[in-house]
């Protein structure tokens, strides 16, 4: 029996795992106690890595759609046919007629991240979409305008803070999001053991809220008023503390003026949280030696998500806890994307590019994913005629998925890189099978930039590839060379990682790929330190508290504040939730993760259920302006009255070739979310607060 160490790359937590195996058979998967970040912690998802590797439903050979269905073809035919069709369509309709959609797993793949940019450059299209704009784009927009670089994203210094305010996040289930923090329960318990405090603001009493000192229900999509009120209190009570940023911020006066009219009393009317409680939280955080506000997906995926993330940053800065121990800090990763793509002194946007149809803002070179269907449907120059989908499933992951599916079915060509036949790529013309996590090597290029401790770790491939699958980076490299008519590059991801490590901050200390290979548990590079001044990318070398983009969006908030958002036809508000044993849309074919209690239920408050005549376990009909689903009701006191909740990432169709997933009784929340609901500041999807109705089916 042999032992293999690696990092689980299913979610953002970066848990170190120890795999005992004999040949191709896995004996056990458990946490690695020597991993410097996860310290032996493991969640249920990691044990499913073996399920994905051995899954009989995995795609192992290139497939081509015919009138009789999919048939196996050679790699040479698949790659050549794909490039032929792409070139034909671009010659007929222009380069931008071919779109790309990148799913979440790309961020977890070393090879994809290193070889994606050359592929996109070879494809020569500006029609790019990804999961970022149904998740986290407000974080990147705030970082860009405030700090000068969209990838300068801070994380809470959990191991040193004494007051943690959590808004729209459930890290006990996610182990962090835009924050790689395995074993969050132990870290939360440590805060409380040092007499610290944890407060959660959420429309649902989440698993995290149950571990916190206090929880307050908040009406969905009203967080912006709560944040404005917190800042209002800091100014009114003269509690502003800039610490080492005292002479390095702009816009302080503008912030003071804009929050003047947003008192806790005003916020109470919108949020449902008593003014006294809002004021107490603000003053407690101001009095705490080390305090931090952590805002995540519940805030970024609403109609004012951009304002929410911006104001979260502003509060942490004004409370003296930005780039400071115990507050919001910036990891100093061994491979730093800031150093490889500096923005200081370079031309900035004269104006933000806009999408073709709805004129939504484009950030990170991407069209907002809420526009995917309309960009395929709407005739004219740059109409999308073909789609390259890489580890993505927009039929389930993008708002109004049924509309997306109808539009995809009408494309002239669709190619997919994936490990499964999904709800999206069952409509593809070519499917290119990719390797599983255990068949490829890994250095986490993305999430070590968001880890709450600086570490570096490399994991070699454990198993030989099954069938004829290739690593995603090999497929991207092959397609790139054919598109350019050049010989394929011989550069490997390992060579690129080694070069980047040697050029990085710790390279002077001899950090290299070879050194990482000698430390299979990873290398501890130390706790987070005050590093933002060294890495800030604004030309003025200061933080912009009040960028004009955010100030201008406040007019939209003021207009919305005067309206009545309550609908008689759709009296409830729908929010999403994450479940511990699944991740996004691709983990549902694991028998280890899918056994037991049905997790795809509609949470409904017991008082609302009684008024609607709904009993626990009743099959109910949930409707929105774009669709309807039938789902099992779960009655609880842990959700606010007037609010319903469905988990994200479910909804595998009954005719799916993923047999375990199809056997589950699940629905897609994105059959209800409205693609016309969007944060117009950032282009991010507004998944939370969707107006819906519920009745007995």
Overview of the structural elements:
- The chain is of the alpha/beta class and 697 residues long.
- The chain folds into 4 domains: 53 residues, Phosphorylase Kinase, domain 1 (2-Layer Sandwich); 250 residues, Rossmann fold; 197 residues, 3-Layer(aba) Sandwich (Dimethylsulfoxide Reductase, domain 2), CATH 3.40.228; 133 residues, Beta Barrel (Barwin-like endoglucanases), CATH 2.40.40.
- Helices cover 31% and strands 18% of the residues.
- The protein contains 25 helices and 28 strands.
- The chain has a 7-stranded mixed β-sheet with strand order 5-4-17-16-15-6-7, covered by helices on one side. A 6-stranded mixed beta barrel has the order 23-27-24-26-25-28.
- A hairpin with a 2-residue loop joins strand 4 and strand 5.
- Helix 8 packs parallel to helix 13.
- The longest helix is centred in the first third of the chain and has 19 residues.
- It starts with a strand and ends with a strand.
The order of strands across the largest sheet is: 5-4-17-16-15-6-7
Biggest sheet character? 7 strands, mixed
The structural domain count equals 4
CA-CA gap between termini: 53 Å
User: How many beta-strand elements?
Assistant: 28
**What oligomeric state is this?**
single chain
Mean pLDDT: 96
What is the highest CATH level, the class of the largest domain?
Answer: Alpha Beta
Which overall shape is indicated by the principal axes computed on the Cα atoms? globular
- Spans of at least 5 consecutive residues whose pLDDT stays below 50 are none
**Radius of gyration from the CA trace?**
24 Å
CATH architecture of the largest domain: 3-Layer(aba) Sandwich
Percent of residues in helices:
25-40%
Helix and strand content put the structural class at alpha/beta
| Percent of sequence in beta strands | 15-25%
CATH topology of the largest domain: Rossmann fold
Q: Helix count?
A: 25
